[in-house]
Design a protein that fits this description.
Chain lengths: 230, 122
């Protein structure tokens, strides 16, 4: 009978110890994984990835950072939720939402501009090369970035306020109002940007549309002096 | 739900599962039920042992020695504490569910991009 009581006591003690140890391990691991998740955000540079204009690094960045974050961490750790929200917003801003992209009107009457008839500025040669290699996402992402950089330089030179301007489309609108572009050039650039936005968002863009977008951009930028004219 | 990662939410979005919001709700229901079972077992075990020891103590029929009684009481307390700890964690589940829905809807907005990326790396 004493032996039986000892067994019961020992079993109770072991069960109690297991409860305590499990709770402590759970607390320790929770803190460890939170630090690990934050570490993933600190190591990688979102800005560099966005500047690269390449889909694989951007997507891989998303995979690498998000894969370490759990929904539980998102709700219990303010730094983690702030980082996740910030990065998701930046990426959504970069690729656009389906609603935004589909609401942009792309004129179906835009005359096709044969790319082979135009002189390609050297800055756009990588875009052409990527398109020829079948990397249409990279090509159009790079095209949009180059257009945006070009327009930002022009806007700064004209001393326009562009702090709150977030997109290439908004820059075109601003410069059109400032009479830097005529309506035809503005139209060409909008067309190029809209096609690029569709591709970056992941919607289907044919090779012909991609070439047409590049051609429209070259035609618009060749009419207006700027960095591409150097 | 500790184990649901954002990557799994991305996978859910890309797979275009119909009624994905309902699927998420069901996942959280399962998790809640499982955790509540663990809570009930822990609290129940702790309470049962405590009541048993206390009842025999009052009746004066406790025939364990001091260290045995202390050890049993301590383990009952530990089991009870673990149950309360898990219950406390569970109160956060509604916040996790809302967060999962919010993140899911944000990811749905960039679904074509996510699919294009997965196709590019395949």
């Amino acid at each position: 009978m004493d032996f039986f009581k000892d067994i019961i006591s020992a079993t109770s003690i072991v069960a109690g110890l297991i409860s305590v140890i499990t709770s402590l391990i759970s607390l320790f691991l929770s803190n460890y994984y939170k630090k690990s998740a934050l570490g993933a955000f600190e190591e990688l540079q979102l800005e560099e990835v966005l500047k690269s204009s390449e889909i694989v690094p951007l997507g891989r960045y998303l995979d690498t950072t998000l894969s370490k974050v759990t929904v539980a961490q998102y709700t219990t750790s303010a730094p983690i939720s702030a980082r996740v929200d910030e990065y998701l917003n930046r990426i959504r801003e970069y690729v656009g939402t389906t609603e935004e992209v589909q609401s942009q009107e792309i004129s179906k009457h835009a005359p096709e501009v044969p790319l082979w008839t135009l002189e390609i500025p050297s800055e756009l040669q990588p875009v052409i090369d990527e398109l020829r290699e079948g990397e249409s996402w990279n090509a159009l992402a790079r095209l949009r970035r180059l257009i945006e950089l070009h327009l930002r330089e022009v806007a700064k030179a004209r001393k326009l306020h562009i702090d709150k301007v977030r997109s290439a489309g908004q820059l075109v609108e601003l410069l059109e109002k400032d009479r830097y572009f005529d309506s035809e050039s503005a139209y060409d650039l909008r067309y190029a940007i809209q096609i690029s936005n569709r591709a970056i968002h992941g919607l289907d863009v044919t090779r012909v549309e991609a070439e047409d977008a590049i051609a429209h951009a070259i035609r618009a930028l060749s009419r207006n002096p700027g960095p591409f004219q150097r | 739900m500790k184990d649901l990662t954002l990557k799994e939410l991305v996978d859910l979005v890309i797979s275009e599962v119909p009624d994905s919001y309902e699927r998420l709700e069901k996942m959280f229901e399962w998790h809640f039920e499982r955790d509540m079972s663990v809570v009930k077992w822990s609290l129940g075990a702790g309470a049962s042992v405590s009541v048993a020891v206390f009842a025999t103590l009052i009746k004066g029929e406790l025939i364990m020695n001091v260290w045995q009684a202390s050890a049993v009481a301590a383990s009952a307390l530990a089991s009870f504490t673990y149950g309360v700890y898990r219950l406390r964690q569970l109160r956060n589940i509604h916040r996790q569910f809302v967060a999962a829905l919010k993140l899911h809807s944000q990811l749905v907005q960039i679904r074509p991009f996510l699919k294009t990326y997965r196709d590019a790396v395949r």
